[in-house]
Design brief:
- This protein is α/β, with parallel strands linked by helices and 319 residues long.
- It folds into two domains: 276 residues, 3-Layer(bba) Sandwich (Glucose Oxidase, domain 1); 30 residues, no CATH class.
- 24% of the residues lie in helices and 18% in strands.
- Strands 1-15-13-7-9-11-12-4-14 form a nine-stranded mixed beta sheet. The protein has a two-stranded antiparallel ribbon with strand order 2-3. Strands 5-6 form a two-stranded antiparallel sheet.
- Helix 9 links the parallel strand 11 and strand 12.
- Helix 1 runs parallel beside helix 9.
- It starts with 5 loop residues before the first helix and ends with a strand.
């Protein structure tokens, strides 16, 4: 990998790992096509204890965003409160009262999925479509994330790279590039397989550190993450989706000079891979470490926001 030539590296990986046309010209699901009924039955059969874990960060004003690309933390506003009810201001009969609220937020400000219309490669969106015809001011007219809403449920696999590779703190340092070798070694240590249709969660431990030390540059700064060289593994394993506990999924600073998120540029518009970011696998990881089981039923449906290129999500893992 020539660190001074991101353009050629991206072009070569995009060609080698493209899934354009694999599921037909009209496809809107990308690698979610790997997650079929058989894989869902396999995932559902993993439930033994019935213990469940939310893999979402909190959606509140104390979140990690700092305003980059106009991304803010969620703003939660009460529309009606207990005070309104107590003062009789709501106009309901026989003592009935209630509370209502609303939230305003960018769709990718906390635990979320990147939709297929989120990233382009040289003006091309997923499946080779012209980006300007796919995403307009009206939203993603073709691959809006609402198409994925019924499909993201199946076998989940946790790869706790932070615990296996990161030493006693179970945390990888910022700037640590997770290679295919690290992923394979972690799967071996967990005695778990990764394959077609799986939803893979990679824990780096960065979120654990951010909670302990403060957000700092968590949103957009240096972080551990997947190496650009894992593109082949992501393609070859035929996983349905991958998510991390970091802001940007791939290692930051990126491995090339003068590059920005090159693995995104290959994985989303060319591979059609569903990518999750800012997930919180810590409680699940602690349980997996205790019982030695790193596979589970996982449901992580995006909100069916018509035309959205990303969505908040509350992933639920059940063991």
């Amino acid at each position: 990998m020539n660190r001074n030539d991101p353009g050629n590296a991206i072009a070569e990986a995009a060609k080698a790992f493209s899934n354009w046309g694999r599921w037909g010209e009209g496809d809107v699901l990308g690698t979610l096509n790997f997650l079929d009924a058989a894989k869902r039955r396999e995932g559902a059969a993993l439930v033994r204890e019935g213990v469940s874990f939310s893999l979402a960060q909190s959606f509140d004003m104390a979140g990690p965003q700092q305003g980059w690309r106009r991304r803010t933390n969620p703003v939660h506003t009460m529309l009606e409160t207990g005070t309104d009810a107590a003062l009789g201001n709501q106009g309901f009969p026989h003592g009935f009262g209630g509370a209502d609220d609303m939230i305003a937020m960018p769709l990718q400000c906390s635990t979320q999925w990147d939709g297929l219309g989120h990233i382009f490669d040289h003006g091309k969106a997923w499946n080779g479509r012209p980006a300007e015809e796919v995403v307009t001011s009206a939203g993603d007219l073709v691959t809006g994330i609402e198409h994925m809403a019924p499909h993201v449920a199946g076998r989940g696999v946790l790869l706790d790279v932070g615990r296996v590779v990161g030493g006693p703190d179970a945390e990888l340092p910022d700037g640590f590039a997770i290679t295919e070798e690290h992923l394979v070694a972690t799967a071996d240590a967990h005695r778990v397989t990764v394959g077609r249709g799986d939803i893979v969660i990679v824990r780096t431990g960065q979120l654990t550190r951010a909670r302990r030390e403060g957000w700092g540059e968590y949103a957009g700064g240096a972080s551990p993450g997947l190496s650009f060289t894992t593109a082949g593994w992501l393609h070859r394993t035929e996983i349905a989706a991958v998510a991390t506990d970091t802001w940007g999924f791939e290692v930051r600073p990126n491995e090339f000079e003068n590059a920005f998120q090159p693995l995104h540029q290959v994985a989303i518009p060319n591979m059609g891979l569903l990518i999750g970011e800012m997930w919180d696998p810590d409680a699940l990881a602690a349980h997996c470490s205790r019982d030695g089981v790193y596979e589970f039923w996982l449901t992580a449906a995006p909100l069916p926001v018509t035309g959205a290129v990303g969505s908040p999500v509350n992933p639920i893992a059940v063991k």
